[in-house]
């Protein structure tokens, strides 16, 4: 209300519904106001305190991907990133959120931030492997991520914890000692991608202000869908057309614009205004000034509103500067600004790759990664020719091994060309130096050096004991005597839990209950599980399971008195030595407690 002197209470309906006459100006003002209040109170406030105390504030906002989600959660993500010392993002499901990364990277570029953070690998599932981890990290590195927060390392896998979505990047995963193979790669990469300054010549005005104008009204939902679609398409047209770019936040442009082509720490030869419904008056004034020095392009019809009010200022500025909203027309108009180009063996432009290009004074760093994976999981490599504006010698930095190899390059017409075979999960880091060296042969250290056939092994050793998973059992609740107990038919252990709780009259809390750990445990009942199996041999054995300190075991009629003897995979799964497994039929009965938060889990023989 202090910004526009509007009566908020009297205008509340206009936040949700379009007015009968005119534009929903109140709605736009409302979202602009609460975004500014939130940013100043949180990111700016805490960031200022951190700066004064020698600390870099880092973290990420919520719902950064689409315009609609940003509006619901934080108003505008880019406005908040300004207050962070190291702005960050969150990438879940292994998704490819190019807009999320690009928004954050743009602020890092324009404000000269030390780096960019990403929380990643969350909700990727247990089937994710090193190839998946590398691919997600690679495309994010190409879009500016230099600080990684892998999700996650468990404190415990007790109970339901073991069914969290990502694999634990710790001792619970058999490969955790080899995981440095991934992190060493990104550590080496991070050294290169935090050096020097980014080389980006194109900027795009971010469309969030137009989203606020259309958000929340049923009559304008089609306009919002169109805005979202254009936002996503334009981002991918440029990135996969080998034309790196930054977004410009209208809210921050007055703070960033200096003079000429300079916005903060960056200098842009072209500013693109995508199809929008409104611009801020300060944006129009800055673009009027910028157009004296750089190229200004309006895609589609210029906005008819300024500050969400009818105005022809944008239309007058767009005269002679408009293009149809078309991938072909846009990329053709920007062809002269392409400083990196990636060509397939047939001469066509490769459209699966993105890059990060930096000027480090005496050299330049170029990192190329797949922005999306080929449809076929097993396919021959893409034989690419990389074209770089300028004359350079080329060194390949193998980030997986640390080896450095000179690459034979051809220089003609002011362009350096060299080849590389990209397999499905490949990425490439090269250093470009202006001191031209004569590399007579292509030192292809990054191609296979030998081939061999895999035959059946003659001998092998196990890294851990052989394990029989016991995850189905007969069961009885609070039995007085195991021989005369009312045994229920065999069932999966995780399905037994709710049945047994119901029979015992126990309510079981789940992860969705509000602070179940704050509730007092209401008392324990006993659940007996009976496992029956056959063995072809007599052998020594142990049983691994949870809650060993409160459980009882009977093996083939003999009560087990052995104490804990280490743990299996996780400290919550203790190991108890058994009297021995005999040839033929065997029976194990385990009596375990069940309560509000104590549930049966699988056993491991």
Side by side, the strands of the main sheet go 5-17-18-24-20-21
Report the radius of gyration as a whole number of Å. Answer: 31 Å
Q: Please state roughly what percent of the residues sit in beta strands, choosing from under 5%, 5-15%, 15-25%, 25-35%, 35-45% or over 45%.
A: 25-35%
Shape: globular
Mean pLDDT: 91
Describe this structure in words.
The strands form nine sheets. A six-stranded antiparallel β-sheet has the order 5-17-18-24-20-21, with helices on one face. Strands 27-26-28-34-30-31 form a six-stranded antiparallel β-sheet. Strands 7-6-10-12-15 form a five-stranded parallel β-sheet. With 605 residues, the chain is of the alpha+beta class. The termini are far apart. Helix 2 crosses helix 8 and helix 6 runs parallel beside helix 7. It has 14 helices and 35 strands. Helix content is 25%, strand content 27%. The model has no long low-confidence stretch (mean pLDDT 91). Strand 13 and strand 14 form a beta hairpin.
């Amino acid at each position: 209300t202090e910004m526009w002197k509007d009566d908020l209470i009297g205008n509340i309906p206009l936040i949700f519904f379009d007015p009968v006459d005119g534009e929903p100006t109140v709605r736009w003002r409302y979202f602009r106001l609460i975004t500014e209040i939130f940013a100043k109170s949180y990111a700016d406030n805490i960031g200022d305190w951190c700066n004064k105390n020698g600390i870099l504030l880092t973290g990420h906002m919520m719902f950064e991907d689409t315009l609609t989600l940003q509006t619901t959660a934080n108003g505008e993500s880019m406005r908040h990133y300004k207050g962070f010392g190291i702005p960050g993002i969150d990438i879940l499901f292994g998704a490819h959120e190019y807009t999320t990364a690009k928004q954050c990277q743009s602020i890092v570029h324009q404000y000269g931030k030390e780096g960019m953070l990403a929380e990643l690998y969350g909700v990727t599932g247990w089937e994710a492997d090193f190839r998946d981890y590398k691919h997600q990290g690679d495309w994010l590195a190409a879009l500016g991520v230099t600080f990684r927060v892998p999700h996650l390392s468990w404190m415990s896998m007790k109970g339901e914890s073991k069914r969290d979505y990502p694999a634990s990047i710790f001792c619970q995963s058999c490969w955790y000692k080899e995981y440095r193979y991934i992190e060493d790669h990104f550590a080496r990469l991070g050294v290169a991608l935090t050096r020097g300054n980014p080389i980006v010549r194109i900027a795009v005005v971010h469309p969030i202000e137009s989203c606020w104008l259309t958000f929340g009204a049923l009559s304008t939902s089609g306009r919002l869908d169109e805005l979202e679609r254009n936002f996503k398409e334009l981002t991918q047209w440029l990135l996969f057309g080998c034309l790196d770019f930054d977004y410009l936040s209208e809210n921050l442009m007055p703070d960033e614009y200096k003079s000429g082509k300079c916005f903060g720490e960056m200098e842009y030869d072209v500013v693109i205004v995508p199809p929008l419904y409104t611009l801020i008056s300060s944006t129009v004034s800055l673009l009027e000034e910028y157009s004296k020095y750089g190229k200004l392009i309006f895609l589609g019809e210029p906005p008819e509103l300024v500050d969400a009010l009818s105005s022809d200022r944008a239309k007058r500025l767009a005269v002679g500067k408009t293009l149809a909203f078309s991938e072909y027309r846009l990329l053709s108009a920007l062809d002269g600004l392409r400083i990196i180009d990636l060509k397939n063996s047939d001469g066509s432009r490769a459209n699966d790759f993105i890059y990060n290009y930096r000027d480090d004074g005496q050299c330049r760093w170029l990192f190329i990664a797949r922005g999306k994976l080929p449809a076929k999981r097993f396919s021959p490599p893409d034989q690419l020719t990389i074209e770089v504006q300028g004359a350079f010698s080329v060194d390949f930095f193998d980030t997986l091994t640390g080896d450095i190899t000179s690459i034979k390059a051809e220089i003609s017409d002011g362009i350096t060309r060299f080849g590389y075979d990209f397999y499905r999960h490949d990425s490439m880091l090269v250093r470009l130096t202006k001191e031209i060296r004569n590399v007579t042969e292509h030192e292809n250290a990054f191609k296979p050096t030998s081939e061999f056939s895999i035959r059946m092994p003659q001998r092998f050793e196990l890294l851990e004991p052989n394990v029989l998973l016991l995850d189905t059992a007969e069961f009885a609740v609070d039995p007085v005597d195991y021989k005369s107990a009312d045994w229920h038919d065999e069932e999966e252990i995780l399905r037994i839990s709710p049945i047994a709780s119901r029979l015992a009259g126990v309510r079981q809390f789940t992860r969705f209950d509000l602070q179940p750990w704050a509730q007092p445990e209401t008392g324990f009942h006993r659940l007996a599980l009976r496992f029956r199996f056959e063995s072809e041999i007599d052998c020594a054995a142990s049983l691994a399971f949870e809650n060993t300190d409160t459980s009882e075991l009977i093996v083939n009629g003999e009560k087990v008195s052995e104490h804990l003897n280490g743990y299996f995979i996780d400290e919550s799964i203790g190991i108890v030595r058994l009297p021995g497994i005999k040839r033929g039929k065997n029976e194990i009965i385990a009596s375990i407690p069940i309560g509000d938060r104590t549930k049966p889990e699988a056993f491991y023989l």
